[in-house]
Amino acid sequence: MKKHILIVGSGFSGMWAAVSAARLAELNESSYLRISVLAPQPELRVRPRFYEEKVAGLVAPLTDLFAELDIEYIQGSAERIDTKEKAVWYRDSHGNTTLATYDRLVLATGSQSKRPAVAGLSEFAFDIDQLESAQVFEKHLDALVHQPSTPARNTVVVCGGGFTGIELATELPTRLRARFGEDTQTKVIVVERGPVIGGRYSEALRDVIANASEELGVEWRLNSEIEAVDAQGVTLKNGERIESSTVVWTAGVEAHPLTTQIDGERDAQARLRVNELLQIPAHPDVFATGDTAHAKTDDVGNTALMTCQHAIQLGKFAGHNAAASLLNVEPYPYRQVNYVTCLDLGAWGAVYTEGWEQEVKLVREEAKKLKIAITNELIYPPAADRAVAFAAADPLAKFV
What we know:
- The protein is an alpha/beta fold.
- It folds into two domains: 3-113 and 253-340 and 388-392, FAD/NAD(P)-binding domain, CATH 3.50.50.60; 121-249, FAD/NAD(P)-binding domain (3-Layer(bba) Sandwich).
- Helix content is 28%, strand content 26%.
- The protein is built from nine helices and 25 strands.
- A hairpin with a 4-residue loop joins β15 (233-236) and β16 (241-243).
- α1 packs parallel to α7.
- Pfam families: Pyr_redox_2.
- This is NAD(P)/FAD-dependent oxidoreductase.
- Belongs to the NADH dehydrogenase family.
- Keywords: FAD, Flavoprotein, NAD, Oxidoreductase.
């Protein structure tokens, strides 16, 4: 009887975990494994691009790839995990609750926006965290065209100055001009609780973000927090009122709630702490990967970030190690020493840095070309070709 590797999630980490597991099975000429991916749709949603226009097209189908690699697709949404019974209950496309058992589980359910208890936030703020919510936001921008031109209509407030907030804020001037025309005075305001722009980044990178923001007309409210959101705008905790018809929440993410069903230590973002093979220490049959895993990238104290850059490699290692544990093959300790940052800055261009110290290497158009190559090509699934896909899924091959 075949041993079953069940991968929950078809995002960057889940998709690559499946391909990597299939690769190792073929390398060992084994028909011993059954590899399945459980997800609502057989597609990869290109989440790093959800700040862009035409978000509905930012998906990549996986049906042909899975078929080529003998990966089974199970349509459904996971709802409950029982590590003692080695079972996952999921709701299928007909709304029925169904059971899937496993020998190895790879948890690749990703993350979601963290929404604190701010008055009016759930009722009046948009987000671009998931495909559906990004589509709602895009439709809202389209609908603004039919409203009278007022300061509130022409102002967007972005709550949170992290990676997503910066990319959205610097892209918005172009998106607003495309709708309202070049002659309409628009305003984009980033509300950031920290004391400086881009506080988590190096000084050199912060300077680039600040310069780009100034050139694009993006305003920052530093040392500021949201007190309340309503249909007409936001009120800050310092009493300032910003009139706006469009408030977007980008402040923070946390691991999918399914992680809470598994015994284990978690970090502040609800990610499960894993060992170097990406196993949950209390449950060695369960591997966490992508945004569900708190994993060390090297031997000097760095940990994987909740980005597709790390999710892709985490997935390759998790799939390999899950399969290796069933094939009696040597596993690979997860390592991802190289780290880069490539931040889109709208019409200004982009900025590319290398290393955890974030040394700026490229700016403006040169960096923009690299950003487009990464987000439009490099992070997409491989071709539905066994040789090509398996070569790309090698955990030890260089990604960036």
